[in-house]
Amino acid sequence: MEKTERMPVVPLEAGAGPDNPPCPACGEPLFGWIDSRPGLGGPVSRCESCGLGVVGGPGSAEEALRELDRLGDQAGVTIINRASFSAWIGGAGWAGLERGSRYLFTIEAVRRLVAGRDQVVKSTRWSPGRGMATMWQTLVNSATFGRNVVIGASVTAGKPWQRRVDWVVIAVLAIPALAVALPLELVGAATRRGSAQTLRFELL
Questions:
Q1: N- or C-end of the chain: fewer Cβ atoms within 10 A?
Q2: pLDDT at 16
Q3: Rg of the chain's alpha carbons, rounded to an integer?
């Protein structure tokens, strides 16, 4: 029988360098994900280990924790999950890419960040209202010039005629998109990849 030569496994650390700074949550290299878009502070990188997304420069754990706390408090937060089914479907049109975003959190990234201040994630729970809205807006984003036109933190299209077209598209697609978003988000929730997750913390 002919032997099959195995490809060597390359650790993530091998990608570290000036173009791939360390992830603020886990220290593994950040890799490019999405190029710069209107409303964002620069290109978006992501960590292949914990999933954290970082917009613009490399950032720090302290800055990431401050942004995390603005989503709730030190007892718990609700995040728009970068490891969600909607983020996978949407890519650059994902509704979690909100205007002014700096860090795009995942459950695992949050676990690692709060461990640095002696906390653990006590519980995680899918947030159905925000989750459905995020999935729905992600689907609508695929057909509009602007982004997140309905749910806020929007990036409107540059030309008046494009903005008018966007509202016509939204009116036409609102119900069909909801019909598709509901089962997709339920699948995401069932596989722990819901679009919005509420996390509760406790001290070690």
A1: N
A2: 54
A3: 18
